[in-house]
Structure formats: structure tokens, C-alpha cells
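FORM 7B: Structural annotation worksheet

SECTION A. Query
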Amino acid sequence: MVRTRFAPSPTGYLHIGGVRTALFCWLYAKNQKGQFLLRIEDTDLERSTQESIDAIHEGMQWLKLDHDEEPVYQSQRMDLYQQKTEELLESGCAYRCYCTQEELDVMRKEQSEKGETPGYDGRCREIKEPKNGEFVIRFKSPEEGEIIINDHIFGNVLVHNQELDDFILVRSNGIPTYHFSVVVDDHDTNISHVIRGDDH
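SECTION B. Predicted structure
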């Protein structure tokens, strides 16, 4: 079954770009006799507000873009993200990174001076035992091979793995990043089609 979702962040009012995405997701689900879900991505605790959440719900009701299940709130799913984090660490697909911001700044500066693309160099990849101090959780991206993404608009999109960075999954305060929580949620709620602007 086709299942789409609209997943706004409640850091402001619903804007025309968000409405456009919601409409496309809703129309595609209805056209395919599928389901349309609403997910509130409120893991940015500093910027997310109840006023913005209320405005999103009011806007969706005014537009008559009904969702087929109860809304999902990411802030209520922290236990799930923690579980998936532990699974990735145990399987060796993620690791703790203890680099400070100062170390990262020096790293990127040296890379830029050499004409290299700035990115994390993986220096914490092989640390096996937990250390004292703050850390983030990074995804251990494959260093060889390629990934082919089947995009219904652009066709097969080829990504070379050596171009990927070991991006952060969980911040030092324990809050998951967008890149992590969105994938966990899409998988957990069986989202079949992700419709977004091509700037993403």
C-alpha cells in the first residue's frame, strides 16, 4: 500500500512551501488509494512551540487535508530512537565521536587549505571502549562502493560512498538529528513514498 507523510517542524507557522508539499503527498496517496500521515518533527526542543503545532493542525483542517492515522510526534518517540541507536552501535554501523568543536574546526580548516572537501575524517571510528567526556553518535558510512536511489522523478540517482560523510545521528545532548529520526520514523510507519522539494 502507498503511504505518504507530511512532516513539518513546528518552529513557525505553516508556509506556502509546506502546504504545497502536504498537498502533493495527500493527492498522491488518495490517487493511489493509499494512506496519508501527519508527523510533527518536534525534536528541536528550543525552537518548537505549541503555538506552531496548533497552527499546523488548524492549517491542515482549513485545507481539508485529512490524515488517516493519529499524528506522530517525534518528541514522544525518544525511546525508539535510543533503541535504534544502541542497535547501530552494537552492530558496528555507528560509533561514538569525542572530537571537540575546536578539533573539528581545525580539521576543516586544514582540509580547505589542501583543497579538499571539508568533512569528518573518521578519527574516532576505531575507538572500541567508551571514554569520559561528551560525545556524539556518528553513522559509519561505507567507504567503498555505490548506492543507487530509485527516484520517480529523476530516475536512478547514483551516489559514490566515498563522497559520504560520517554524519551525526545523535547530538551530545542525546537528541537525535533530523537525518536519523526521519529515517527511523519512515521505516517504523511503513512510509512507501517520500515527496519533498528537490532542494532536499
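SECTION C. Observations
The mean pLDDT is 93. The helical segments are 16-31, 50-63, 78-91, 101-113, 178-188.

SECTION D. Sign-off
Analyst initials: ____
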